[in-house]
Design a protein that fits this description.
With 183 residues, the protein is an alpha+beta fold. The chain folds into two domains: 104 residues, Ribosomal Protein L30, Chain: A; 49 residues, no CATH class. Helix 5 crosses helix 7. The longest helix is centred in the middle third of the chain and has 11 residues. The N and C termini lie far apart (59 Å). Belongs to the universal ribosomal protein uL30 family. Keywords: Ribonucleoprotein, Ribosomal protein.
Amino acid sequence: MEGVEEKKKKKVPAVPETLKKKRRNFAELKIKRLRKNPKVRKVLQLLRLRQIFNGTFVKLNKASVNMLRIVEPYIAWGYPNLKSVNELIYKRGYGKIKKKRIALTDNALIARSLGKYGIICMEDLIHEIYIVGKRFKEANNFLWPFKLSSPRGGMKKKTTHFVEGGDAGNREDQINRLIRRMN
């Protein structure tokens, strides 16, 4: 009888083991339009994905994985490498300064907005985003969501999962190829 109770108490973790072994942040891209479901629309707003082909960085934790499960048919996500993060921020990076979208042209803009957190230049910003440091939230909120182009060669199947040959869902390290096609 005690063995049965022990089995019932065992909880399944919300974050799969394979995700825990990977890096702690990921990039996500909205790839499909949404029409009806208000819950999915709200989660996409929380992830700052309001338009098609927008991209953001998100810290990987239990809450974000649960949100991803809700919107998985509508987004592509994975684990970007340093080169992808670097290219995104240098080419498509805009900062949120006084609620306005300002191009990141020089380090003075970053130093004025994020200097109090120890982020004074582009390289500090890229480093903070890539390693998911202590000031990831402030650095990520400073960045405006990336407005990417439609991918060269187009999308294969937006309605099916990546595992089944489509475009939606977790791409893990393959997100870097998609980012390069869209950047």
